[in-house]
Amino acid sequence: MPLWLAVVLLLLSLPGTLFSRRLQNKPLRILCVIFFALLALASAAYIGLTLLLVNAVQHQPPAA
Questions:
Q1: pLDDT at 13
Q2: 2-32: b or e for each residue (b if 16 or more CB lie within 10 Å)?
Q3: Region at 62 (left for phi over 0; alpha for psi -120 to 50; beta for the rest)
Q4: Distance of alpha carbon 2 from alpha carbon 17, whole angstroms
Q5: Which of 8, 16, 61, 63 has the most CB within a 10 Å radius?
Q6: Per-residue pLDDT, 9
Q7: Which phi and psi angles does 49 have, rounded to 5°?
Q8: Is the pLDDT assigned to residue 64 strictly greater than 80?
Protein backbone atom coordinates (compact mmCIF):
# COMPACT_ATOMS: atom_id res chain seq x y z
CA MET A 1 0.00 0.00 0.00
CA PRO A 2 1.40 3.43 -0.83
CA LEU A 3 2.09 5.77 2.06
CA TRP A 4 -0.25 8.43 0.71
CA LEU A 5 -3.12 5.94 0.78
CA ALA A 6 -2.43 5.13 4.43
CA VAL A 7 -2.51 8.86 5.22
CA VAL A 8 -5.80 9.29 3.34
CA LEU A 9 -7.33 6.31 5.16
CA LEU A 10 -6.19 7.72 8.49
CA LEU A 11 -7.67 11.11 7.70
CA LEU A 12 -10.96 9.58 6.54
CA SER A 13 -11.30 7.23 9.50
CA LEU A 14 -11.33 10.07 12.03
CA PRO A 15 -14.46 11.83 10.68
CA GLY A 16 -15.96 8.40 9.98
CA THR A 17 -15.77 7.62 13.68
CA LEU A 18 -17.43 10.91 14.57
CA PHE A 19 -20.22 10.56 11.99
CA SER A 20 -20.93 6.96 12.90
CA ARG A 21 -21.70 8.06 16.46
CA ARG A 22 -24.81 9.77 15.07
CA LEU A 23 -26.37 6.50 13.91
CA GLN A 24 -29.59 5.56 15.67
CA ASN A 25 -29.11 1.77 15.48
CA LYS A 26 -26.89 0.98 18.48
CA PRO A 27 -25.34 -2.30 17.26
CA LEU A 28 -24.54 -0.72 13.88
CA ARG A 29 -23.08 2.33 15.63
CA ILE A 30 -20.81 0.16 17.77
CA LEU A 31 -19.61 -1.84 14.75
CA CYS A 32 -18.89 1.32 12.76
CA VAL A 33 -16.94 2.93 15.61
CA ILE A 34 -14.90 -0.23 16.10
CA PHE A 35 -14.25 -0.53 12.34
CA PHE A 36 -13.09 3.07 11.97
CA ALA A 37 -10.98 2.90 15.13
CA LEU A 38 -9.23 -0.25 13.89
CA LEU A 39 -8.73 1.37 10.48
CA ALA A 40 -7.13 4.40 12.12
CA LEU A 41 -4.93 2.19 14.29
CA ALA A 42 -3.79 0.08 11.34
CA SER A 43 -3.08 3.16 9.22
CA ALA A 44 -1.12 4.84 12.01
CA ALA A 45 0.90 1.66 12.60
CA TYR A 46 1.64 1.34 8.87
CA ILE A 47 2.77 4.98 8.67
CA GLY A 48 4.95 4.58 11.76
CA LEU A 49 6.57 1.37 10.54
CA THR A 50 7.21 2.88 7.11
CA LEU A 51 8.92 5.89 8.65
CA LEU A 52 10.97 3.58 10.89
CA LEU A 53 12.08 1.51 7.88
CA VAL A 54 13.01 4.60 5.85
CA ASN A 55 14.98 5.98 8.79
CA ALA A 56 16.84 2.67 9.22
CA VAL A 57 17.76 2.55 5.54
CA GLN A 58 18.98 6.16 5.55
CA HIS A 59 21.18 5.66 8.62
CA GLN A 60 22.70 2.27 7.88
CA PRO A 61 26.51 2.14 7.75
CA PRO A 62 28.12 2.04 4.32
CA ALA A 63 28.76 -1.38 2.84
CA ALA A 64 32.39 -2.48 3.00
A1: 95
A2: eeeebeebbeebeebbeebeeeeeeeeeeeb
A3: beta
A4: 23
A5: 16
A6: 94
A7: -70, -35
A8: no
Give per-residue pLDDT as tens, 7-56. 999 999 999 999 998 889 999 999 999 999 999 999 999 999 999 999 99
CB 3 within 8 A of CB 50: yes
Amino acid identity, residue 41?
L
CA-to-CA separations, 51 to 26, 46, 56, 57, in angstroms, rounded: 37, 9, 9, 10
Burial class (CB in 10 A: 0-12, 13-18, 19+), 33: middle
What is the rounded distance in angstroms from the CA atom of residue 52 to the CA atom of residue 30? 33
What is the pTM for the complete model shown? Answer: 0.84
